[in-house]
Please model this.
Amino acid sequence: MKKFLNVLSVSVATMIGMGALASCEDEAIGLGNNVIGGEALGNAKALDVIAYNDTVDTIRTDRFVLQNATLGVYKEPVFGSTSSKFYGQLRPEGIGNRDFGKEVKVDSVNLYLPVFYSSSKTPVSRDTINLTNPGKKSIDTDTIMITTKFAVDSLYGNKDAMMTLNVRDINTVLYRDTKYFSKLDGSQSPITVNSPIIGTATIGKTVTNKIVKVKTGTSNIFAETVGYKVTLDKNYFYDKIVKNGNTGLLADHATFIRENIKGFEFSVGESDGFIINFNPNNISLNMYYSYKNPTDKKPTDTAYKERLSGTYGFEFKNQWNSTIGSNVLVNQIKNEFAGTTFGNAVAYPNKTGGDARLFLNGMSGSSVKVKFNQSQIDLLKSDVAKGAVITGAKLKFFIDDAYSFPKPPYLVAWNSYTKDGKSINELYSDVLEFYNSYPTSVHFNPIVTGKTDYYTIDITKHLKSMLEKGNAFENQEMVVTMGNFITSISDATTINSTNPYQNNRAYNPYRIVLHGNKSEVDAKKLKLLVYYATK
Model:
């Protein structure tokens, strides 16, 4: 169970002036009925807002935001189709010229795409076989192989679908300092690929893990990475790696990624299925090869092997790894929603009166804009001048339960306004100056789980700065989008950046429909709820 801050019970008593007046209990921010001394009374007012579906925008989809990445495609009638391809650089774990030996043969090349799965839940299946004595019941000293099948947690869409994962090598040099974006029509930062597929695998709702160990042993002889396993083309790696052992193309990382293997594209072959979320830092890739034993056999060599084996590994680490890497990573996302409910909503928003329903689609750059009623805020300012103390301010975005989309855990928002003729987008002071410890103790945008049917954006400190300190924000609008702030790799409870655009919407596949300020359900209309105490 997650802990929610700023839980408040409000019983509506009557309607006056600019909203509902009600008695309220203590605010979770620590300001109760006795906040100003004497016999203070707690009150609430519901201020009008105008909320509308904004135009879907281009989003940045590179290392700036990709703490995780996506691939796949999902289509349904409300929001349309979202498809995603992933591009990643890779580097040899041991850079430098390499003598692979004589009569080299690449035996296999295995890539594991790690996906999020639940190891704590009961696995889908688990089988054990005896490698020492096949077909017989194993004893404590036997070597066994345990094969466990887990359910994938990070799959959004049709969970029963099976899709084809294809891997190709790219023909475009990726640069760390280049900004990569995804546009609606798919004409994003151009990355070209070579047409031959160098690896393919069927992927779905389960992943398999294999472990080899002595039955009673405490360590593993072999442990397979949990993820989708892709067998790559042995000839491709023979040409790219073995043949170039002493050509200089393996000599340093810069040469390798610019002139040898520039990176891989991960895509699916289907037009509908699911979106998968994964951590590219944990992609595992190894080339297993064998070569002629350079030492001649002696009569006393009872364990002599004609051929020896070796492993050549690669890593995909980027800036979001605990040991920071330099590999470039890019998602290219395409959204097609013309003629859908979502498409019509963003094409014809009511910017003057607000919309009845608000649509947010992760991985699309969609957003909702919220305007406050300045005349009502000015009236409240006069109450503050007479001694009222603001104890809370929040917006509640109620979910429209007529739609059956999985409930996203977060919505995120920031302030957009004009200052000295320039457009400013910045985090609210409720994020920067208030205590927020994700995910359990969050003031600004607490996580939504279970039966909770609304999202909260708390701007208490922001409103207090306007009413009590006189801070002004010209042409201000709240920008609301799918997702949450990206948290730090060193402390996952804190946000990584004060830049509002560093959020996870680029790899957040959720979709949600919310009640707007023009909703026909009066109790679920979007309002700015302001709590204050007076004598």
